[in-house]
Amino acid sequence: MTHPTTDSDYPLSEVPAGARKGLFSTSIMLFSFTFFTATMFAGGKIGMAFDFKTLIWAAIIGNLLLGAYAAVLGLIACRSGLNSVLMGRFCFGEAGSKLSDVLLGFTQIGWYAWGTATVAIVLVKILGLSESLIMPLMVLFGFAFCITAFIGYKGLDILSRISVPAMLALLLCSLWIATDDIGGLSALMAIEPTQSMTLSVAITMVFGTFVSGATQATNWTRFARTGRIAVIASMVGFFLGNGLMIVAGAYGAIVYQQPDVVEVLVLQGLSIAAVVMLFLNLWTTQDNTIYNFAAAGCNLLRTERRKTVTIAGAGIGTLLAIGGMYEMLIPFLILLGSIIPPIGGVIMADYCYGHKGRYPLLADVRLPAFNWVGLGAYGIGALCAYFSPWVAPLVGIAVAALAYIVLFETKKVFTTRDVVVRA
Q1: How far apart are CA 227 and CA 229, in angstroms?
Q2: Cβ-contact 80, 351 below 8 angstroms
Q3: What topology does CATH give the domain 23-422?
Q4: Are 348 and 74 in contact (CB under 8 A)?
Q5: Taking 70 as the threshold, does the pLDDT of residue 418 lie above it?
Q6: 34 burial class (0-12, 13-18, 19+ CB within 10 angstroms)?
Q7: What's the angle, vertex CA 341, arms to CA 336 and CA 344, rounded to 5?
Q8: Which end of the chain has the least Cβ crowding within 10 Å, N or C?
Q9: Which GO terms describe its cellular component (predicted)?
Q10: Does the model's pTM come out above 0.70?
Q11: Cβ atoms within 10 A of the Cβ of 237, count?
């Protein structure tokens, strides 16, 4: 049985009404989460393959789909007070939910290793420091970036309120200079693409780059005071925020052949601003990432010691960064990006169809060890996503949700038949 938690971030229980947050807090939290360097690289690849108008349409469609996905999960999280890993208990069972815990947790610790290594390597390059400092800097930032996550929602909120305005100001300044360097918007729009890519692939890149993050954004939307706030905040983060990252990456790639805004700021002669952007860009994603890991870890271990799990996760991520494993992890994490979204599809179907839009309190319910309907639906969705030639994450979500409904009804038929036979 789940007991009331003493942690203000409620790692093993529903978020109570008294702990809910308003629109500004929830929105700025998700906006800072999506301010991510890797998304800019996706935008850079798209920017080299399309004219500017088509690029904008790809960004709008991809991020609208991403925002809608995050918004539906956000609405469910707000109404239930649960995050994705806790909802996984209903979808996959008490023991079965450990599958989603491992997948979601490992993805986040991999990205944490990547961010920790990146900040050390790039800082040494920008400031012209000795390469012998890379490892000590990895250790320093590996634990420093988790401080706000260690504090919890309040720490993430404070950092977001400071960092988001600063990052926006630097980004807009960089875009203004880039527009001037290329000769204005008319010159930008006249540039012909140098690479080729289908619109479907572009939308897949836009949607897929941060869909794993959208699946775990329930860690914050469950704190939303109302469903309306959860939906609006999700769209602010994953439509506007992620969309801005895609466009910024494309801008840098077109003008400077460099999608990373930090590198662009250096090219523009703004090295100090580049260092500031580097810290803020990675810190606001790193602390959210390790917070997600802690949420998955607490559910996996059934412990309320969120702060301990946070520190342990930072240690694991730092060791992976030092060992150079972050370079090998990225391809695998991209693979997980296609097989994680079906978790969201199962959650949607389980909540809306299986539980008729209302979960019972975790403390009052006894769940089976394995929910084979949810696990089977996830397996089908993940396989279809992996082999899909189209927008793989979207296929995974849709197929998993549909498979859940079919398996749910099939189970009901067999259960009813067994009852009739026994009678």
Answers
A1: 5
A2: yes
A3: Hydantoin permease (1.10.4160)
A4: no
A5: no
A6: buried
A7: 140
A8: C
A9: plasma membrane
A10: yes
A11: 31
